[in-house]
Write a sequence for this structure.
């Protein structure tokens, strides 16, 4: 009878002196990994305009049909986004969302990102529907980069002149590496 | 049949077929950009290159432009062909901007799809892309020249099919661009077709721009509610619940995101071919107009009170039964607008004719001469056109009489262009003629403003002289008098009166004109095509909404009152109850004062309508109706083709289908069982209306044409729709004329009522049409405007010195003494100056500037 008791208690004593897993949640928070996929945000450009152009790719990528978008034409004098259109309505139903992150992957403008904000409980089902105003970050928020190297980071700006100059510099570097040839001296 | 070898298999072909046609028919996929099955071959995109070997010579040829020859060896999938296509695609993408996320065509773009299937993933082109300026060519169109790949499709449609000339291709090489001449606004009623013809998103439409993606909406097959051609359309509607795409909420009230996003053509080669007009395409947002009636209302103590449907129906039924008992059934009358479905018209006629027992029911305009009966029935024994729309293509000699086709039935214009191009002689006789007529007419003759009847009678007279037939009533008048009154020369008429002519005219023309032309067509072994002005005019006649006919081709035993007669009887106090179905006589009929007097002297007015208008103020009961996009139903077009339109969006407010309301009233009065399904009503029609007896239900049939699956811009053309026609029986009769000479107006200005494409009861209810609607506009000859010294705004002064402030626009095509006003009169009450024939007298003065 003593044998099993010692066996059981030995496990208890083993863990008493180890580091504790339990987190005192409301007072204490665990650090999440950098690519945690929780609440979505809609990002902004550096100049404060919205990144979203209402291309609806996130809505069509969404397996649970949680995203609803209505596009509208931009006023060219006072544009809301960089494209010709912007999202007049951008709604996300968290009651349907399963946080798969397909929408973020689909976004061609890096407008949509997921954060480590995981405290999403609300008292009513209606509050689970988040609107554009709730999801948009304030201007000046540091961007979260979501492109994983599928797309070019910056647009390639190359003109015939600069390409020729590049070639010229390359050639000069080559000459330097090679050193002077005998017959050229 | 001759044979050739396609991809190693021996294949039969018909002489004259191209490689592409044979290959597509057999399911071999060849990508294309510039090829369109209904446009002339351009062979400019070079996507359809195939390897052709003939008599030892081998090379790449465009398959869309190469006719098959005996002994050809064609390979569509060699390495060389694939490489050529890939390089060509890379070439097309050189200057194409990568803005698919914001582009409207994303998801239904040929370039996107073909690049996905065949194209290179990366471009080797590192230079700056060519940038051209955006062009707004039309209030409804926007052109993005950067995206354009110069496939020439829009230009071929615009120049070859619609025979217009202000859109083309300019410049050479790198600077080549498509667009309007000198950036002017397009003068075309078919410009919207260029959106659909464009293989990518270079031309986009205003109503759909940036709103949605092709995978987000559901498509419904419907019929154009704007004119009686009954163009087949696809209605793209967002109908889902707010957070779920794809589910339709059946029944219930329309939410804020139940909207019609756009309207596209649906190919039906019997009716509209693959084209529709701009009015049909762009004017659809009136379904959400703020002027719509939402609840059934009863006027109590001078104020409208909202009531439930059961109450309003029992109230109306009780009241009608009471009036019938007290004054007899002749004291009840009904006027319809000819806009509803056949089912609704059927029950409207059933309610008035069978249940109440009155024959006073009509949908035509209140012309005095329509009291005599139905002009076509008088001649042919049937009130339908003898020609089908496609007979325009077969006719050698076409006479278009008195109808401004561009303003009322634009699609007939496209058919006339095609007919003229294939060698037919097309004559136009009208009060005046514009550029639109010059597109298709080989000869244009203008008769006097008042000489409509004389012009038609002189056609009949010459036809009679040619056939040596005495026409009763016309033998007393000499040809010379007729021609002089009409203002025409004898040679003109002799030229156009030919054996087997096709006469095209509308049903608002004077009784004698319609009768004379129908008679002339029977004399010449020709045909007539009557263009009904009411969108479902033919259907309404067939269903018996007529004081003389019970079902389109059999006469009523007792003649009732026509619209003119009803209004006259109402003024005399003989009409006690008036049912107005989808019409506002005050703004849609000429002679406003007389109509208003008639309306005021009726005790009990019931208005069934979708929109608030002037007559609703005089109504005792108002009932909200659904519009054609909100109900299922069949529509008969002007040639007698019975077509089915699907419900696309939920109903607005408490509105109900008209047939349901009429059926409830019938059920309430007679105690019959109420009908609850529209299909039951259609079956009742098929069983009881003579010309419809051979129709089979359901009315729709479709078949697929083989086109490769990955060409989105041809996706719509793949399925072709066919609808059956009603069968009318022709019984030509002896005809006589009671000819009286009309009065000629010589002094002052003549006010003439006419139509405008963008001024209808629907376009005036939506802001989308605003840039094109002539609001408060009258048109005059520029010379007259200068003579009178008018600048922009003027005052029209009637015979009793009443004044109307209007905008005056110059129109070079009008005769000098004419002021042209546009129906309907929702924006100005100029119709009080017009008589029942649509003419009026007016003086004009410059408006004082404040």
């Amino acid at each position: 009878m003593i044998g099993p008791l010692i066996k059981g208690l030995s496990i208890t004593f083993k863990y008493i002196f180890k580091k504790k897993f339990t987190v005192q949640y409301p007072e204490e928070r665990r650090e999440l990994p950098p690519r945690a996929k929780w609440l979505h945000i809609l990002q902004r450009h550096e100049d404060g305009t919205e990144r979203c152009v209402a291309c609806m790719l996130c809505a069509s990528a969404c397996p649970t049909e949680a995203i609803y978008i209505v596009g509208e034409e931009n006023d060219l004098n006072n544009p809301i986004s960089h494209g010709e259109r912007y999202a007049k309505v951008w709604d996300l139903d968290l009651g349907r969302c399963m946080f798969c992150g397909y929408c973020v992957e689909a976004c061609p403008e890096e407008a949509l990102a997921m954060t480590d904000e995981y405290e999403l409980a609300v008292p009513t089902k209606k509050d689970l529907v988040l609107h554009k105003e709730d999801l948009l970050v304030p201007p000046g928020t540091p961007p979260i980069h979501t492109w994983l190297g599928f797309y070019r980071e910056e647009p390639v700006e190359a003109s015939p002149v600069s390409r020729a100059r590049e070639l010229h510099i390359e050639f000069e570097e080559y000459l330097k590496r090679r050193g002077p040839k005998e017959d050229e001296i | 049949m001759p044979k050739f070898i396609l991809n190693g298999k021996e294949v039969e072909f018909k002489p004259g077929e191209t490689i592409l046609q044979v290959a597509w028919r057999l399911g071999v996929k060849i990508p294309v950009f510039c090829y369109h099955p209904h446009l002339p071959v351009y062979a400019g995109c070079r996507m359809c290159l195939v390897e052709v070997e003939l008599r030892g010579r081998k090379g790449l040829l465009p398959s869309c432009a190469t006719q098959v020859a005996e002994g050809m060896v064609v390979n569509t999938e060699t390495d060389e062909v694939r490489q050529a296509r890939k390089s060509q695609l890379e070439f097309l993408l050189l200057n194409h901007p990568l803005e698919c996320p914001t582009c409207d065509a994303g998801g239904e773009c040929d370039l996107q799809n073909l690049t996905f299937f065949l194209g290179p993933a990366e471009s080797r082109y590192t230079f700056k892309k060519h940038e051209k300026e955006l062009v707004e060519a039309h209030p409804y169109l926007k052109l993005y020249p950067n995206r354009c790949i110069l496939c020439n499709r829009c230009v071929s449609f615009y120049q070859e099919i619609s025979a217009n000339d202000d859109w083309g291709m300019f410049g050479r090489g790198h600077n080549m661009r498509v667009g309007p001449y000198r950036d002017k606004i397009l003068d075309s009623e078919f410009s919207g077709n260029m959106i659909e013809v464009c293989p990518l998103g270079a031309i986009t439409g205003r109503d759909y721009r940036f709103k949605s993606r092709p995978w987000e909406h559901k498509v419904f097959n419907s019929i154009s509610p704007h004119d009686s051609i009954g163009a087949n359309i696809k209605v793209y509607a967002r109908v889902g619940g707010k957070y779920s795409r794809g589910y339709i909420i059946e029944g219930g009230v329309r939410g804020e995101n139940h909207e019609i996003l756009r309207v596209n053509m649906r190919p039906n080669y019997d009716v509209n071919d693959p084209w529709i007009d701009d009015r049909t395409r762009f004017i659809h947002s009136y379904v959400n107009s703020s002027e719509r009636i939402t609840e059934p209302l009863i006027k109590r103590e001078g104020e409208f009170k909202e009531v439930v449907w059961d109450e309003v129906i029992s109230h109306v039924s009780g009241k009608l039964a009471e009036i019938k008992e007290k004054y007899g059934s002749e004291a009840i009358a009904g006027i319809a607008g000819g806009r509803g479905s056949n089912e609704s018209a059927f029950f409207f006629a059933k309610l008035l004719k069978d249940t109440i027992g009155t024959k006073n029911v009509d949908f035509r305009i209140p012309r005095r001469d329509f009291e005599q009966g139905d002009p076509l029935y008088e001649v042919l024994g049937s009130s339908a056109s003898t020609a089908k729309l496609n007979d325009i293509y077969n006719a050698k000699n076409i006479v278009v009489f008195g109808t401004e086709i561009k303003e009322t039935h634009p699609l007939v214009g496209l058919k006339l262009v095609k007919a003229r191009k294939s060698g037919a002689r097309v004559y136009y006789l009208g009060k005046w003629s514009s550029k639109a007529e010059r597109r298709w007419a080989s000869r244009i003759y203008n008769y006097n403003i008042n000489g409509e009847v004389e012009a038609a009678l002189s056609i009949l007279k010459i036809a009679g002289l040619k056939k040596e037939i005495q026409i009763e009533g016309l033998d007393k008048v000499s040809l010379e008098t007729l021609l002089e009154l009409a203002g025409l020369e004898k040679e003109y008429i002799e030229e156009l009166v030919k054996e087997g002519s096709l006469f095209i005219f509308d049903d608002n023309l004077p009784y004698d004109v319609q009768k004379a032309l129908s008679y002339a067509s029977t004399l010449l072994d020709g045909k007539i095509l009557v263009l009904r002005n009411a969108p479902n005019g033919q259907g309404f006649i067939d269903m018996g909404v007529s004081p003389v006919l019970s079902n389109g081709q059999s006469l009523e035993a007792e003649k009732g009152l026509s619209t003119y007669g009803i209004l006259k009887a109402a003024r005399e106090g003989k009409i006690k109850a008036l049912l107005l179905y989808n019409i506002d006589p005050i703004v849609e009929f000429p002679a406003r004062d007389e109509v208003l007097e008639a309306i005021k002297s009726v005790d009990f007015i019931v208005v069934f309508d979708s929109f608030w208008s002037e007559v609703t103020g005089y109504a005792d009961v108002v009932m909200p109706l659904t519009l054609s996009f909100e109900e299922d139903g069949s529509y008969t077009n002007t040639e007698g083709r019975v077509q089915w339109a699907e419900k696309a969006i939920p109903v607005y407010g408490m509105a109900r289908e008209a047939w349901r309301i009429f059926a409830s009233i019938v059920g309430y009065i007679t105690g019959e069982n109420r009908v609850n399904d529209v299909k039951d009503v259609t079956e009742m029609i098929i069983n009881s209306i003579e010309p419809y007896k051979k129709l089979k239900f359901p009315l729709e049939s479709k078949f697929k044409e083989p086109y490769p699956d990955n060409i989105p811009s041809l996706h719509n053309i793949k399925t072709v729709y066919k609808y059956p026609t009603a069968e009318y029986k022709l019984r030509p009769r002896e005809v006589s004329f009671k000819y009286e000479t009309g009065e000629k107006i010589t002094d002052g200005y003549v006010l003439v009522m006419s139509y405008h494409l963008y001024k209808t009861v629907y376009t005036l209810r939506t802001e989308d049409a605003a840039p094109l609607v002539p609001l408060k506009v009258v048109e005059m000859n520029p010379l007259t405007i200068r003579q009178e010294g008018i600048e922009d705004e003027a005052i029209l002064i009637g015979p009793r010195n009443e004044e109307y402030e209007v905008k005056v626009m110059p129109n070079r095509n009008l005769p000098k003494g004419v002021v042209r006003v546009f129906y309907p009169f929702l924006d100005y009450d100029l119709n009080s100056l017009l008589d029942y024939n649509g003419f009026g007298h007016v003086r004009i003065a410059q408006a004082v500037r404040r």
